[in-house]
Design brief:
Its cofactor is Mg(2+). This protein has 197 residues and is of the alpha/beta class. The chain is built from five helices and seven strands. It has one domain: 3-Layer(aba) Sandwich (Rossmann fold), CATH 3.40.50. The model has no long low-confidence stretch (mean pLDDT 94). Bound molecules: guanosine-5'-triphosphate and magnesium ion (MG).
Length: 197
């Protein structure tokens, strides 16, 4: 799929203030610093569309970007930010859960996983929660430029093993690098396919 245009629309904390749910929408979620905002920039080929930072906790709001004037990409704040206070974490949970549970045009959520790490409890629990709530998701292993392909295969296999303890089958799985743009075409084609259905 070709990205002809990508425009920032609105940031907010309230799902009810999101744009009218009249176009397909795809959200990016995962731990703070996993590379959600960078992936949005990589997909849209716009370096500064979503704000990124070396420090976790950069994205704090629900950010809507309109792509090709007919679908949305959504950048969300990360979870598992160690420095967040308990009340901040609770606030995060409330508004993100509300967004994921109520957003009627949300087609799929991409759960980003740091490809360098062994399976993380917080990510497994989040995906399990999506399963319980019936929120469709796909996994995206990020930052694959930072490890060898054999280490990547090993970490992906470890995730698969953990997932299959709970799930009957694996969700769609992607691997990406926002540095090299690896995985861009596959992910965009997947979205394209879903847009057509
Ligand atoms: P929060 O908004 O804080 O939740 O973080 P985020 O998930 O949006 O992460 P962000 O895109 O801001 O990236 C965090 C850091 O990781 C930045 O320093 C990025 O440059 C770096 N980064 C993101 N993706 C990649 C990647 O594919 N490869 C490499 N080498 N670095 C990456
Ligand atoms: Mg971010």
């Amino acid at each position: 799929m070709k990205i002809k245009s990508a425009k920032f629309v609105i940031s907010n904390t309230k799902p009810e203030n999101c744009p009218k749910p009249d176009m397909p929408e795809y959200a990016f979620i995962g731990r703070s610093n996993v590379g959600k905002s960078s992936l949005i920039n990589m997909l849209t080929e716009q370096n500064k569309l979503a704000k990124t930072s070396g420090r976790p906790g950069k994205t704090q709001l629900i950010n809507h970007f309109l792509i090709n004037d007919n679908w949305y990409l959504v950048d969300l704040p990360g979870y598992g930010f160690a420095k967040a206070s308990k009340s901040e974490r609770k606030k995060w949970e409330e508004f993100i859960q509300k967004y994921l549970n109520t957003r009627e045009n949300l087609i799929t959520t991409f759960v980003l996983i740091d490809s360098r790490l062994e399976p993380q409890k917080i990510d497994l629990e989040f995906m399990e929660w999506c399963g319980i709530k019936g929120i469709p998701f796909a996994m995206v292993f990020t930052k694959i430029d930072k490890l060898s392909s054999s280490a990547l295969q090993k970490n992906m296999a470890a995730y698969k093993k953990e997932m299959l303890k709970v799930w009957e089958e694996m969700p769609p799985v992607f691997s990406t690098s926002s540095e090299s743009a690896f995985g861009r075409e596959k992910l965009l084609n997947y979205i394209d396919q879903l847009n057509e259905n």
